[in-house]
Amino acid sequence: MRRTPSRRLLTAVLLAASVLGPVALSPATAVHAASTARHDHDGRDDCPPRGLGPELTARLDRAVDNVRRQAGIPGLVVGLWMPGQGSYIRATGIADKTTRRPMTRDMYVRIGSETKTFTVTALLELVDDGRIGLDDPISDYVDHVPNGRHITLRHLAEMRSGLYPYTFDPDFQHDLLSNPSRTFTPHEVLAYGFKHKNTFAPGTQFQYSNSNLVLLGLVIEKVSGQPLADFIQRRVLRPAHLHHTLFPSDASIPEPHPRGYTNQTLTGATVDATDWNPSWAWAAGAMISNLNDLRHWAKTVATGTLLRPETQAQRLKMLPTGIPGTSYGLGIFNSSGWIGHNGSIPGYETVTVYLPSRKATLVLMLNTDITYQGQEPSSLVARAITEIVTPDNVYDRPTPPR
After folding, report:
1. Which pLDDT value is given to residue 390?
2. Is the torsion defined by CA of 214, 218, 221, 223 positive or negative?
3. Per-chain mean pLDDT for the chain
4. DSSP secondary-structure letter at 387?
5. 287 Cβ partners below 8 Å, 6+ apart?
6. What's residue 153's pLDDT?
7. Residue ranges per domain, the chain?
8. Within a 10 A sphere around the Cβ of 233, how many other Cβ atoms?
9. Which CATH class is domain 38-389?
10. Alpha helix (H) ranges present in 27-161?
11. Which residues contact 225 (CB under 8 A, 6 or more apart)?
12. Do 189 and 176 form a contact (C-beta atoms < 8 A)?
């Protein structure tokens, strides 16, 4: 009898990220990281306190250390930039459980669902070009989508299409986890979802679904006449000056990078998922980036630098998700004032968010997606940090009903 993984599996998590309660802080000694770093025995990048000042830095160090140890996070990179106050940049823990190589701030990671912000930005640029309309039905671009005549591109970007998420399909889960190096095409993954009935009428509810973003990737390819990766490179990454962000064509990841660890396996055992092929996630979750690029992307996507103001206004029209504290726009969320996205893919988690009221940016990169007491580790870290630095805007998104 084969084991059926939980529905958390492979969803490139947005709203399954959870923080259900405050994290108690235990005493710890640590200091603020900087580019002239040294590595201690715990794999931490350390240098004399600066940036946000010794007291606040020490509080953040204790919070980060406590969450990392409590949740069993092997390695973690934190970047926090608060104009007028300073910054906090920290790499802690290990990048490789075997060699004990330390985590460092210059590493590349798989960014999972943060890919959605790039895909939807590319789509909205086609809107700005006058080549598509957000209220066009998906049937104008892709054949054989269930109820496709009534599902618009807007519904897809808002996660309100009603299409069954292909990552929920047990056959997909088994096929991927039986052979994580397998290459999937967009149409292959969509087929797993399309064999199920739609879950609700378009526009009536919110349901996070990678099926939506794979379809939007196909729209971009059809309208632009280019592979999705090429279009994103030319119209998004290059204009945004993101020189360390890429859409991989295979399972490779640039150096330096940490090993990524997951328990999303057929047996539930923890394995190294670094070299798993991300093709199954494609437009919904296959991209790779680093701390510096994500820092700049946070403000770019939240403020709409690459888009016309009226298009960005549509993007930021946040609708309720049914989950307290979180609303969702066009491929972007608002969590207690923080605007951006998180990402989860087997082996890695990230958070990239911007707080307009403070012009603050927070970026997290983890080399695990293993939950702690049902809570996503990246959200545990984000909550612990924002409770300290922005107590009126705490990044806190409870787990939705399964």
Report:
1. 98
2. negative
3. 89
4. H
5. 110, 111, 114, 115, 118, 245, 246, 247, 248
6. 99
7. 38-389
8. 18
9. alpha beta
10. 54-71, 115-128, 153-158
11. none
12. no
162: left (phi over 0), alpha (psi -120 to 50) or beta: left
pLDDT at position 8? 55
Non-local (6+) Cβ contacts of 123 within 8 A are 132, 153, 157, 216, 219, 220, 331
Q: Provide the terminal-to-terminal Cα distance of the chain, rounded to the nearest Å.
A: 23
> What integer pLDDT is reported at residue 128 of this predicted model?
98
Q: Can you give the pLDDT at residue 194?
A: 98
Model pTM score = 0.90
Contact partners, residue 133, CB within 8 Å, separation at least 6: 127, 153
Q: Is 288 exposed, middle or buried (0-12, 13-18, 19+ CB in 10 A)?
A: buried
In terms of phi and psi (left: phi > 0; alpha: psi -120 to 50; beta: otherwise), the region of 112 is left
Strands (E) across 208-359 are located at 261-262, 271-272, 288-290, 319-320, 326-328, 333-335, 338-345, 348-355
pLDDT at 127: 98
Residue 227 is predicted with a pLDDT of: 98
- Specify the amino acid at residue 362: L
Interacting residues of 311 by C-beta distance below 8 A, sequence separation 6+: 124, 127, 128, 304
- Cα–Cα distance measured from residue 347 to residue 22, given in angstroms and rounded to the nearest whole number: 25
The C-alpha atoms of residue 177 and residue 162 are separated, in whole angstroms, by: 26
The dihedral built from the CA positions of residue 207, 16, 229 and 81, taken in this order, carries a sign that is: positive
Whether the Cβ atoms of residue 302 and residue 340 lie closer than 8 Å to each other? yes
Amino acid 51: pLDDT: 87
The span from the CA of 402 to the CA of 400, in Å, is: 6
pLDDT at 397: 58
Cα(93)–Cα(104) distance, integer angstroms: 9
Measured between alpha carbons, how far is residue 378 from residues 296, 367, 382 in Å? 19, 10, 6
pLDDT-flagged residues of the chain (< 50): 1-4, 6-7, 11-49, 399-402
> Which residues are CB-contacts of 319 (< 8 A; sequence separation ≥ 6)?
158, 160, 206, 327, 328, 329
What are the residues whose beta carbons fall under 8 Å from the beta carbon of 206, sequence distance 6 or more? 158, 159, 160, 319, 320, 321, 322, 328
- CB 57 within 8 Å of CB 34: no
Predicted local distance difference test score (pLDDT) of residue 348: 98
Q: Which two tokens stand for residue 313?
A: 């206004």
Question: Would you tell me how many other CB atoms lie within 10 Å of the CB of residue 225?
Answer: 9
